[in-house]
């Protein structure tokens, strides 16, 4: 970054004084701008902390042109002035920003520098959003004023440490949502805390709006892992109200505006899912447009022949596909491709956001839908009735905690320990049939199966004596008989 290069030690009495020295009325050899030559208007403006450019506009006289010569550009003046001391809102040393390269996060970089006088380190997490989303990010970040861009590949950690525990728990929010964004935010925030420690940052920042769930998910993770970090959420502070305001701010600060076509939908993509919100989806009565979907074909256009696959599971977690052992991220990526071409995993729902409002979203989760079906089907062999009922009850709470951003909450960790223990014998294989949007289990087997053919058969067996059922029914139905006898005698 240029730091008012026109003022050097050879032209001013002290190289540390710079433009602030001029504002205080110091004497600089360039133009000899003295206390007496500063206008009353400029001094008053300086006392109110008005932006540098406003001062330059007021001091447009010939004797102050030496000051104007210092200003290489609006961006250089405003940002360098902020980074020399306090910003307009305070002082931070270094901020790690969750960065996507889009308009919002590109604008946040100079906004942080201007308002907090800080160095900005951009951070991007690869959670499977696609190579196209990562191209050219370093150039964009530095062009916006960031000192560096840190990129970390979190795909395997995302699947093994966040997705798989939710899968094992059977966590589904409000009967439909498979928690794609909810699981991704804590893994990203966790990595941001690590990066903040590595680069010596005293703050972290995100571009989440004040209306959504993600602000909570990020910040609860920050609180849990490093409560000493300052958190800056520009959307809750700045005056920018929308895209047009952001574009104007970007132009004013010489920030390259992303030239990619703005989608009419708000989307979030990772290795687990793709979500769609906004535009016509804001009216729950509207059917999604066919061309909106990106991970899956329309079930009507899916192949006319079904496809079968076998998933092997060990202790509640998938390990192989069709006999081939794969890493968690690789297995999920392959299932996304297979499920997508059969139109698997589309969900259209109205959900209750954590902040209180309802929102309508459409989700594509092809691989995840296949895995959930396989895991639940195998549990039908390995868990008894009471285990299934208790697991399902706790799965609701587990999903609620993840949705609400409480990944590092002791309660979720305790429930996770229960889930790990109760699925220790959920090992085996499940065969599934994929056909035009549907996933149908066609076979399942487990060395720990509680299913006994000799007991379940309609033929007579030595373990189950059908005559025993009479006594069981009389005892099981005793409360009903007693109640009926009471009511009969009282009438």
Describe what you observe in this structure.
- The protein is built from 18 helices and 14 strands.
- Helix content is 42%, strand content 16%.
- α5 crosses α6 (103-116).
- Among the domains are: 94-154 and 182-253, HUPs (Rossmann fold, 3-Layer(aba) Sandwich), CATH 3.40.50; 266-453, Argininosuccinate synthetase, chain A, domain 2, CATH 3.90.1260.
- The model is unreliable at 1-83 (pLDDT under 50).
- A five-stranded parallel β-sheet has the order 3-2-1-4-5, with helices on both faces. Strands 10-9-8-13-14 form a five-stranded antiparallel β-sheet, with helices on one face.
- It is of the alpha/beta class and 491 residues long.
- A hairpin with a 2-residue loop joins β13 (428-435) and β14.
Keywords for this structure?
alpha/beta, Rossmann fold, Argininosuccinate synthetase, chain A, domain 2, 18 helices, 14 strands
